[in-house]
Design goal:
The protein contains eight helices and seven strands. The chain has 248 residues and is α/β, with parallel strands linked by helices. It has a single domain, classed as NAD(P)-binding Rossmann-like Domain (Rossmann fold). The structure holds NADP nicotinamide-adenine-dinucleotide phosphate (NAP). NADP nicotinamide-adenine-dinucleotide phosphate is lined by residues 8-15, 32-36, 39, 60-62, 87-90, 111, 141, 143, 187, 189-190, 192-194.
Length: 248
Amino acid sequence: MEKVLLITGSSRGIGAATALLAAEQGYRICINYLSDHQAAERVCAHIRKLGAQVMAVQADVSDEDEIIGLFARIDAELGPVTALVNNAGTVAEVSRVEEMSEFRMLRMMKTNVVGPMLCAKHALLRMSPRHGGKGGSIVNVSSVAARLGASGEYVDYAASKGALDTFTLGLAREVAGEGIRVNAVRPGYIFTDFHALSGDPHRVSKLEPGIPMGRGGCAEEVAEAIIWLLSAKASYATGTFIDLGGGR
Ligand code: NAP
């Protein structure tokens, strides 16, 4: 079976690191991004050097029309998706709940929960034997915040990842008999540009003393777990979570 992989939000950070590892595993890869076309093209150029087929598609995963267009382009250029990493996510400035606007909460839920659910829906339409597919694998990128709650930081973000965990478990059981596995990784503090969104790009370095391992994680350390869960090596794993939080 051809392996066709969509990684949402893969122009940088954990998504880009996962794409580079996937290139060595024989996947045809779609790099998805929201706005930074040049960053996406840089990842594509790197992947082409590794000999893998790759394309970059701009699409906002919080909008179903854009997701439909994204999957249609992949169908046409790489073939139907057999593997999906729901990685795109967002966070907002560190705040208490009473300071959070409705706009912020809805944006968080649309990007971090509704988006992955819609991407899974359109992947299932290609993976499930009910729709002519031959199975597949989905990995959702959650967060240790789903377990810890992120009090005083961004409880809305933690709640969105908690919802993603519940979706992972439910969907895994729903499609387990159709040759489709659904799992998740829960990273802790990882060195990426993500933290600039919370108001402090140096957040991970500052918080390192509170991490049991005494250091933040690298995107590649998360990518390794994602690639394993996607692969046939994880053939009996579904509805499971790998925490990559340095002990948090
Ligand atoms: P990042 O470096 O900020 O990268 C985010 C990626 O997502 C970018 O490619 C961005 O595209 C894309 N993106 C954002 N919103 C999007 C949307 N609506 N539609 C499509 N693409 C979108 O983030 P990261 O640290 O790698 O995080 C990836 C995932 O890991 C997220 O789900 C995050 O919640 C989770 N996570 C991260 C950490 C951490 O410490 N970094 C910890 C736990 C969980 P553009 O560049 O074009 O905007």
